[in-house]
Input
Amino acid sequence: MYQPAENRYHSMTYNRCGRSGLKLPAVSLGLWHNFGGVDAFENGRAIVRRAFDRGVTHFDLANNYGPPPGSAEENFGKMLRLDLRPWRDELVISTKAGYLMWPGPYGDWGSRKYLLSSLDQSLKRLGLEYVDIFYSHRPDPETPIEETLGAVATAVKQGKALYAGISNYTAEQTREACQILRELGTPCLIHQPKYSMFERWVEGGLLDVLEQEGVGCIPFSPLAQGLLTDRYLKGIPADSRAGKSWGFLKTEQVTQERVEKARRLNEIAKRRGQSLAQLALSWVLRDPRITTVLIGASSVGQLDQNLECVNARDLVKEELDEIEQILRS
Ligand SMILES: NC(=O)c1ccc[n+]([C@@H]2O[C@H](COP(=O)([O-])OP(=O)(O)OC[C@H]3O[C@@H](n4cnc5c(N)ncnc54)[C@H](OP(=O)(O)O)[C@@H]3O)[C@@H](O)[C@H]2O)c1
Output
């Protein structure tokens, strides 16, 4: 029988999510890769257990995570049954709908039909009565935003989700979404955008909107899927995301330019006594508008290393300037 570490809340930092009542750990764990049917269940289980042992209370899923789609939710449901069920009230579990999940016109994008039936399927796979956060995974240009968000609000009102979230919405769409969700009585808790040293679109307005609206921010792929770690400094390992046929990081994205930047950033990390992954996470967390960084990990060792970013000293101006120079070069 799994017994979580008694000291699990001693060293993690918890940040308030926007102006809500909910606090999230500074580091959250995502199950996009490494937890599907193609992956070793016991490895994923060990990662999840260690995460909870170290104060990671937030686990992020989506209907389509796998492969095959749905299998990450099934596996996490099994982990809940085997290990975590007694601690359900100490966990914040999220899921999403918005990308292709099943064939035909009702298994993709943002209709009410798709979102609500998808959430029911997710709850079955997870073996849960409710998730903590239900997201619209992406805006749908062909569906009225009121319909998509109305479905998320319905999920909250039905008690199938506690909070509403949005992902991949632009700054302008986010402003509108926040107003609609507020009017529906289910305020937007959180936005999940892609953000890392290599992907900085959120700095062009989204973070300002989130601050004004009192909405939290949980950046995904803060390590640029591994490019901002030492993973690719000596080529593409066969067991890496870029090395696997089903990985979303394609070999052509591992460019010489990015690897060279990673190498230079790694020198700054070393001077700080950090790994490159820790530096990349410290850098995203430097902005107080960031609630939590949403990482992935393929081993307990990676997770352990990444969680240490919580104890890192703040980046000083000289370091930030040097990072900026490398990123702009
Ligand atoms: N809302 C959305 O549209 C959306 C989209 C994508 C992701 N997400 C969410 O964000 C989560 C995180 O995304 P992500 O997995 O791309 O995040 P990430 O943290 O940028 O990348 C994780 C990958 O980096 C490598 N890595 C992590 N720590 C390492 C370390 N210390 N040393 C060396 N390599 C390390 C591992 O790759 P290897 O497998 O090569 O070891 C790991 O799988 C997902 O699980 C999902 O929940 C959301």
Remarks:
- The beta strands are 14-16, 23-25, 27-30, 58-60, 92-97, 131-136, 161-167, 188-192, 216-217, 293-295.
- The mean pLDDT is 98.
- The first helix runs from residue 41 to 53.
